[in-house]
Amino acid sequence: MKDLGIWVNRNLEPSIHINKIAKKAHAVLSQIQRSTTLRDSKTFIALYKSFVRPHLKTAASCWNPSKREDILTLERVQKRAFRMVTDLGKISYEEKLKKMGMQSLEDRRKRGDLIDTFKYMNGIYDADPLKLFTFVQTRHERNTRSYLENNLVPEKTSLNVRKNFFTNRIVNEWNLLPSDIRYGSSLNEFKNYYDADIEMIHNV
Questions:
Q1: Is residue 83 a contact partner of residue 76, using CB atoms and an 8 Å limit?
Q2: How far apart are CA 190 and CA 118, in angstroms?
Q3: I want to staple 39 with a disulfide (CB 3.0 to 4.6 A). Which of 44, 128, 131, 160 is the partner?
Q4: Tell me, what's the pLDDT at 198?
Q5: How far apart are CA 127 and CA 118, in angstroms?
Q6: Residue 76 has pLDDT above 70, yes or no
Q7: Residue 117 in contact with residue 174, Cβ under 8 Å?
Q8: Can you give the pLDDT at residue 139?
Q9: What's the predicted TM-score (pTM) here?
Q10: Are 148 and 129 in contact (CB under 8 A)?
Q11: Could you tell me which residues come within 8 angstroms of residue 54 by beta carbon, excluding any fewer than 6 positions away?
């Protein structure tokens, strides 16, 4: 059944939703291909970002896939879009991403998760971090903000759907962030530091 725009089954697995949004995104790509003759990188990527990619990222924090098959299903849409661009040449998908200054859809979802985590940690979202996350903390820190300086601890669970739940899947990624990124003074600073760090890693 569909709830708030997201297709779910009894097991709460996202495969059905992912297949549906990928199919819709492919259909929009086909419409763009039929209706355009100019498909240089500047023009076509603008169309892709406006009309195709939103289908692949809306409410992604709710259905973020863990199965490689689902991840590849989404990534094939962006790969197809890049193949339609006339001035990128015959280079690899990774090289096209770098040339266009873009990320894979998987990396964008990871970035979105970390941005949401930063918002929870800093009160941008109206929710108590202590009710969402488990922190490595000592007893005297429980009533102070210092718990935010500690790493997160994943919830113990045997269900894959729970392991991939937002508050569990972001634990390792958040803990690995350098402190100057994790404790940015503003959301824009966090985004800028994170993007600069990722770019530096890719250029190594």
A1: no
A2: 8
A3: 44
A4: 77
A5: 12
A6: yes
A7: yes
A8: 46
A9: 0.86
A10: yes
A11: none
Q: Which two tokens stand for residue 201?
A: 């890693």
- Domain residue spans in the chain? 2-102, 109-203
The one-character DSSP state at 86 is T
- Residues 193 and 172: their CA atoms lie apart, in Å, by 18
**Mean of the per-residue pLDDT values of the chain:** 88
| pLDDT > 80? residue 140 | no
Considering only CA atoms, which of 35, 24, 77 is closest in space to residue 43?
A: 35
Which tokens sit at 99? 């040339």
**Worst-scoring range by mean pLDDT, 11-15, 23-27, 53-57?**
11-15
Cα–Cα distance for residue pair 1/129, rounded to 1 Å: 31
> Could you give phi then psi for residue 3, rounded to 5 degrees?
-135, 120
Over range 58-62, report the average pLDDT.
91
Tell me the mean pLDDT in the region 144-169. Answer: 80
Q: Are 2 and 56 in contact (CB under 8 A)?
A: no
Cα-Cα-Cα-Cα torsion 170, 174, 176, 179, nearest 10 degrees, comes to: 180
